[in-house]
Amino acid sequence: MLHEEWKSKTPIKRVEVVHTDADKFTVSDMLTVGQQYDVVNETEEYYQIIDNSGLVGGYYKTYFKEI
Questions:
Q1: Global confidence as pTM
Q2: Closest of 14, 20, 18, 25 to residue 49, by C-alpha
Q3: Would you give the distance in Å from CA 44 to the centre of its chain?
Q4: Entry's InterPro entries (predicted)?
Q5: Architecture of domain 2-66
Q6: pLDDT tens digits, residue range 8-31?
Q7: CA quadruple 54, 57, 49, 7: dihedral positive or negative?
Q8: I want to staple 41 with a disulfide (CB 3.0 to 4.6 A). Which of 7, 36, 48, 55 is the partner?
Q9: What are the sequence ranges of the domains in the chain?
């Protein structure tokens, strides 16, 4: 399974959080505005990053800007 290797995978790129204003979900616990994160996988709608919990999480691209 690919998702089992994401944590040890070389990051694709880095992104920075620009906001944590979510309509349905609470993301402010897992993302910090202004902090940069390594992207381990990307889809059309989501970035999979290693978040503040130390685990890989998927978040909408609208929370980030590319560096």
A1: 0.87
A2: 14
A3: 13
A4: DUF6501
A5: Roll (2.30)
A6: 778 999 999 999 998 888 899 999
A7: positive
A8: 48
A9: 2-66
